[in-house]
Design a protein that fits this description.
- The protein has helices spanning about 10-25, 60-70, 85-90, 105-120, 120-130, 155-165, 190-200, 220-225, 240-250, 280-285, 300-320, and strands at about 1-5, 30, 50, 75, 95, 150, 170-175, 185-190, 200-205, 230, 255-260, 290-295.
- It has two domains: about 1-100 and about 300-320, 3-Layer(aba) Sandwich (Rossmann fold); about 105-295, Rossmann fold (3-Layer(aba) Sandwich).
- It has about 325 residues and is α/β, with parallel strands linked by helices.
- It contains eleven helices and twelve strands.
Length: about 325
């Protein structure tokens, strides 16, 4: 049995090979740096499965191309599946499975790292000191203890984030259409409008869907506390980038930290250091001193990568054995 692994980076190879060996499966893994789309689907010729990541494109044409090359299963090494046309996958009879939850603490801790870095300007201080500038002007932060943080999405990652912030002495508010019962120990569940109005920091931890696309738009930004911080470590399209740029320019939004970006596909997980970034919105974001961007690394811990690889290979095992898969999608 062969599986084509798309958007493969060195750490993917390391942890998937390790998990494959430990699982003892008769699987041959073929690694490709290329992202999956209708043009690269031919790389999966002769493979029964493909393994994909968040920015691989599994629309109807791509799925039909894969099916025509003999692919019968799609394994996502991520939790989200908004990049998969599930209706077309079902029509083609494709097995689709994901990694529904992995090391939520990894993303939660990265969220805290972004908040702390942006709040205390440590990224700017680092650059100053390297240039021999030890002045503190412009580096005044705020004490997090006692501040109000709104967590939108109270699933496993949202809960892990809320626990950290509660431990720092923050007042934590939560919003979720189906709030976790465990959140009651950490803070109050409130309507979205109230959360936006009361929070000094708003952190996004919800899946991307038709209902949550551009959840943070002009109207939401207008409700936020003047000078508030917005943090997104979930999915890029939760945030309307043009609206956020407008709010930053008007100084309505105090600061922005993102590990995801709605048009990240052509940029993230690539070395573009020797090229001109043609995405004008992204280039505009990078001009603001109160904006912090990381390249979708919230999940990137050894523990999370081990778990992702192990669950992905377990899903492969279920497909190979014809068993019901708890992580199947659709």
């Amino acid at each position: 049995m062969q599986m084509a692994v798309f958007s493969a980076r060195p750490y993917d190879r390391q942890f998937l090979d390790q998990a494959n060996q430990q699982a003892g499966l008769p699987a041959r893994l073929l690694y490709y740096d290329a992202a999956l789309d209708v043009h690269t689907a031919a790389l999966a010729e002769g493979c029964q499965l493909v393994c994909v990541f968040v920015n691989d494109r599994l629309d109807a044409p791509s799925l039909r191309a894969l099916h025509g090359h003999g692919v019968r299963a799609v394994l996502l090494r991520c939790a989200g599946y908004n990049n998969v046309d599930l209706a077309e996958a079902a029509r083609l009879g494709l097995f689709v499975a994901r990694v529904p939850a992995y090391s939520p603490e990894a993303v939660a801790e990265h969220t805290l790292a972004l908040i702390m870095t942006l709040n205390r300007h440590t990224h700017r201080a680092y650059n100053r000191v390297r240039e021999g500038n030890f002045m503190l002007d412009g580096l005044i932060g705020r004490t997090l203890h006692g501040r109000t943080v709104g967590v939108i999405g109270t699933g496993r990652i949202g809960l892990a984030t809320a626990r950290i912030l509660h431990g720092l002495g923050c007042t934590v508010l939560g919003h979720d259409p189906a709030p976790s019962a465990a959140f009651a120990e950490l803070g109050d569940v409130v309507p979205l409008t109230e959360l936006l109005q009361r929070s000094d920091i708003v952190s996004l931890h919800c899946p991307l869907s038709e209902q949550t696309t551009h959840l943070i738009d002009d109207a939401a930004l207008a409700l936020m506390n003047p000078g508030a911080m917005l943090v997104n470590t979930s999915r890029g399209a939760l945030v309307d980038t043009e609206a956020v740029i407008g709010a930053l320019k008007s100084r309505r939004l105090g600061s922005l930290a993102i590990d995801v970006y709605e048009q990240e596909g052509p940029l993230f997980f690539q070395d573009r250091s020797g090229q001109i970034i043609e995405d004008e919105l992204f280039a505009r974001l990078m001009t603001f001193p109160n904006v912090l961007v990381t390249g979708h690394q919230g999940f990137l811990t050894g523990e999370a990568l081990e778990e992702i690889a192990a669950i992905t290979l377990a899903n492969l095992g279920d497909f190979a054995a014809g068993r019901a898969c708890a992580n199947a999608v659709g």
